[in-house]
Amino acid sequence: MRLRREMIDYLSGVLAKDLAEKGFVEIESSEAELAALIARVITEDLAVEDKLDDEVKEILRAHEKEIDQKNINYAQMFNLIKRKLVRERGLIL
């Protein structure tokens, strides 16, 4: 996960407050509960990307010898495979 829990909580609180103050959402419970919901959504979204990154690493690990033999740039191949999987799965990162 690229964001620490503290940063997610902070951003969620700011978003919840801003959305409520500007009338973009109507809160039936509390601002804190809205912030918790936003934090959960952010965390789940980041987990999807983490899982995808792990999958890409596993694919690259399976082809490690070929990558070394052909002197392929790991970072470029990582990004290429990740973009391909994102496109195939219709993900938005």
Spell out the key features of this protein.
single chain; 93 residues; mainly alpha; elongated
Structure description:
With 93 residues, this protein is mainly α. The chain has one domain (5-89). 76% of the residues lie in helices and 0% in strands. The protein has 4 helices and no strands. It has helices spanning 5-21, 31-62, 64-69, 74-89. It is elongated. The model has no long low-confidence stretch (mean pLDDT 94).
Which helices and strands appear, and what pairs or packs with what?
Layout: H1 5-21, H2 31-62, H3 64-69, H4 74-89
In the residues, how many domains can be counted? 1
Shape descriptor reads elongated
Helix content: over 70%
Q: Based on helices, strands and strand pairing, what is the structural class?
A: mainly alpha
| Radius of gyration, whole Å | 19 Å
User: Which sheet architecture does the biggest sheet show?
Assistant: none
N to C succession of SSEs:
HHHH
Low-confidence stretches: none
Q: How many beta-strand elements?
A: 0
Number of helices: 4
- Let me know the average pLDDT: 94
Strand-residue proportion: under 5%
Distance between the termini: 13 Å
Brief summary:
This is DUF507 family protein. InterPro entries: DUF507 (IPR007463). By secondary structure, this protein is mostly helical.
